[in-house]
Amino acid sequence: MAQNARQDYKQQKEYxxxxxxxxxxxxxxxAGFFFLLTPWQVTDMVWGCYxxxxxxxxxxxxxxxxxxxxxxxxxxxxxxxxxxxxxxCGILYLVFMIRGTLCMLTRGKSPWMIFRYxxxxxxxxxxxxxxxxxxxxxxxxxxxx
Length: 145
Fold this sequence. Notes:
This protein is mainly α. It has helices at about 1-35, 40-45, 50-55, 65-70, 75-80, 85-105, 115-140.
């Protein structure tokens, strides 16, 4: 009995994460249409990293915008070069949403992708590594300011 309750909880958590993923996809689509229909350029709205301007070092998010753009254009290697966290999250998101859709369409015959805290730890490790490597290379003079 306890095992069934535990399984129901896991399925419910993944279901709500799936719904949140659908809302996220809707927001991204609306933002994409907004930028397509307005005369503004993305570069008009981005002023650069204030932490980098103030300290001279990269922040943990530096390169994220370029990485998202490259990821959405299908240039995943370039995206990983700019910021490896972006393709990591993008691929996890795509796999989770595809498996969630299959689970919904097959009414539970295809399993959910189970949320694991290891995915969060892997992302945190990527963030710390890219932050450290970029700043060490910058400090050694191997990356341009």
